[in-house]
Amino acid sequence: AADEEKARRIQEDTVKNAAEEAARKANQKSADKASEEERTRRIEEENKKNVAEDAARLANQKSADKAADQEKERRVHDDQSQDKANAKAASEAIAGSLKADAASSEAANSWDYFL
Predict the structure, then answer these.
(1) Mean pLDDT, the chain, whole residue set
(2) Residue 91: how many CA atoms within 13 Å on its side-chain side?
(3) Which of 3, 28, 37, 75 is most exposed by smallest CB count within 10 Å?
C-alpha cells in the first residue's frame, strides 16, 4: 500500500509538473507574442511618423522652391523693367542731343545768313 501511495504521489507530481511546465510555456508564448505585437506596433508607428515627417519636409521644400522661383521671376522682371527704362532714357538723351545739335546748326546757319 505504501508503494502504491508513493507511486500515486510520483504520478501526481509528474502530472502537476507537466501541467505547470505547459502553463509556463503557454504564458511565455503569450508574452513573446504580446512583445512581438508591441514591437510591430512601435515599428509601424515609427514608419508612419517618418512618412509624415518626409511628407512635411517635401511640402516645405516645394514651398521654398516655389518662393525662390517667384523671387527669381520678380528679379528678372525688375531687371527687364530697368533695362527698358535705361534704354528709354538713353534714347531720349540721344534725341535731345540730336535736337540740340540741330538747333545749334540752325542757329549757326541763321547767323551765316545775317552776316
Answers:
(1) 91
(2) 6
(3) 3
